[in-house]
Amino acid sequence: MLIAPSLLSADFGHLAADVEMLNDSDADWFHLDVMDGVFVPNISFGFPVMEAIARVARKPLDVHLMIEHPEKFTARVAALGARVMNVHQEACIHLHRVVTGIREAGMLAGVTLNPATPISTLEDIVTEVDLVMLMSVNPGYGGQSFIESSVEKVARLKELLLRRGSRALIEVDGGVNRETGARLAQAGADILVAGSSVFRAPDPQKEIKALKKLSEIDRII
Description:
The chain is 33% helix and 19% strand. It is of the alpha/beta class and 221 residues long. It is globular, with a radius of gyration of 16 Å. The N and C termini lie close together (12 Å).
């Protein structure tokens, strides 16, 4: 299982310390949630903060753009050295073009679905993407309760990927902890984004280690 702690839940008064903690942990990626206050009802952080993180991060950046017109920022995300650029299907009118641009910029292309968006909307794009991320909360705020139907949605996505011959990994973001993570892993998830459950734990590194042991994937990007 790949674990991507979400820095949205970090202590921004001591951000460098939290980044170093993750550097020394078993975490695989840094998950960066960018919100514009338009596509989602909140504003998080932008490029100055991400550039500061990138300077000290020793693990790949998984940049999740919860914004309108994310394609405008492909070059800037690539300039961070990001491994993954994740865009919302709902925010991209020309999704195939956006995905192609991400790959041409040298990054892995991820497509994210909100909780109410059907898996079927990905039917014609899943063979072109490197990962699909399912939101298991409504995007915009950290610390929300897990939407239970997300487990079955992961299983349906896994079926679609197998049927279409796609090797895309399945990432899940929202309300992830040991209990929900175990069920998501059993349903077919490959990557878990964990925010509050990691940063509010008495021992964040121990929590990451526990999440990582939930399942083992047979391919690592």
